Amino acid sequence: ASNSGLSPWPTENGTFIIVRHLVLDPSNPAEVLIGSNGRGIYRSPRGEAWLPLGTSWRNDVIECLLWGPGRVLYACVKDQGLFASPDGGLTWGPFNEGLPATGVAGIVVDELTGDLYATAGGVVYRRAAEAAWAAVDVESMPARADRAPAIVERADGRWLVVGSWGSGVMARRL
To answer: CA within 20 to 30 Å of 87's CA: 95, 118, 169, 171, which one?
Structure first.
């Protein structure tokens, strides 16, 4: 199989980097970012080499990455919470107001409204505009929402879909 010119195995000092999450830069799809399992965030400009993205979380697990509105980069850092970078990963700040301090499993942006949805501590949260994170109707979810959320367009409307550990997939109409 072809790797289309990407350096296929990101390594650091000869040790393979285990990839937890991968995103493409929306303004430069040739640039790939990965969240690793204990080595922070890496980027591959033009797919030629894997370089650490700053020094933040060099020994931490990155559960998720997301490019949001306004080219803000979000990172779910295991046992630390959700962080946002307004400059593509050069500087970071906490983005946890209203979320549990740890256990953020994933985040997605609603492209239609700009709202963000995150799963943390088994609960789905929503953040609209500049408001704080707030739990989404927890009673409508039959199990813990432990996996990254997604937004799905179906013939019968738009749905927020989340997975759970051992209880399948749940969907809630937006």
So the answer is: 118
Give the residues across from 153 on adjacent strands. Answer: 158
**Which among 122, 168, 171 has a CA at the least distance from the CA of 144?**
122
Cβ atoms 128, 136 nearer than 8 A: no
Residues 6+ apart with CB under 8 A from 62: 20, 21, 35, 36, 37, 40, 41, 75, 76, 77, 78
∠ Cα 94 96 99 (to 5°): 165
Per-residue confidence (pLDDT) for residue 1, from 0 to 100:
43
Q: Would you state the structure tokens that stand for residue 143, as one six-digit string? A: 């199990």
Q: φ, ψ for residue 164 (rounded to 5)?
A: -130, 160
Cα–Cα distance for residue pair 34/64, rounded to 1 Å: 9
Flag whether the pTM goes above 0.70.
yes
**69 in Cβ contact with 109 (< 8 Å):** yes
